[in-house]
Amino acid sequence: MIINKIFNVDDYYYDVFMAISESLTGFSVNELQSTGLAEIYYKHILGQIEAVTFTEFLNVSKTALENSYTQDQLNNAISADILSNPATQEIAQSVITLWYLGTWEGAYVNDLSYKEGLVWNVMHAHPPGAKQPGFKSWSVKPVNSNS
Questions:
Q1: In whole angstroms, what separates CA 104 from the centre of its chain?
Q2: pTM for the structure as a whole
Q3: Rounded (5°) CA angle 16-17-20
Q4: Residue ranges of the domains in the chain?
Q5: Of 75, 73, 72, which is closest to residue 84 (Cα–Cα)?
Q6: Which of 14, 29, 36, 67 has a CA positioned 20 to 30 A from the CA of residue 8?
Q7: End-to-end distance of the chain based on CA atoms, in angstroms?
Q8: In this structure, are strands 107-108 and 103-104 parallel, antiparallel, or unpaired?
Q9: Please, what is the Cα angle at 20 between 112 and 30, to 5 degrees?
């Protein structure tokens, strides 16, 4: 797969991070960027783990992305080289959790990370107390209510 230059971020590994995040989450790079958290998450991870550990994860990810020509090949490479490898498995799981729940090691990265967690899109729901439909919206009958 081709790793495209995504942002004008000087760090090449950012593009690898976004490409592997797309594959790990099932959400497109555009959808991930639309959360407004892509760069924040990348920088947060760099601040939480040793740079050499994160770089190793990104190098393994880069190899998997570059050597896969179909989605099946990429899925197999991720399973075999990243998720089954003790050196990269925990980081991959943490990246998935970060995107879906907005947490790193059980703590929210920031207020936006709760609101923009991918879990809400998957559930077709809104984060309680954070986004529309809003306070007391449950007291109004739905427009298409049959009752």
A1: 11
A2: 0.83
A3: 80
A4: 12-139
A5: 75
A6: 67
A7: 52
A8: antiparallel
A9: 55
The number of residues in the chain equals 147
Looking at residue 75, its amino acid is N
- Per the CB < 8 A criterion, the answer to whether 48 and 40 are in contact is no
Element (H, E) at 38: helix 38-48
Q: Residue 108, SS3?
A: strand
CA distances to 38, 42, 57, 99 from 21, in Å: 10, 10, 12, 8
| Site of tokens 């990269």 | 88
Q: List the pLDDT tens digit at each of the 147 positions of the chain.
A: 444 444 444 577 999 999 999 999 999 999 999 999 999 999 999 999 998 899 999 999 999 999 999 999 999 999 999 999 999 999 999 999 999 999 999 999 999 999 999 999 999 888 887 876 666 767 777 666 565
CA-wise closest residue to 3 among 21, 13, 16, 17 = 16
Q: Please name the amino acid found at residue 87.
A: A
DSSP three-state, residue 103: strand
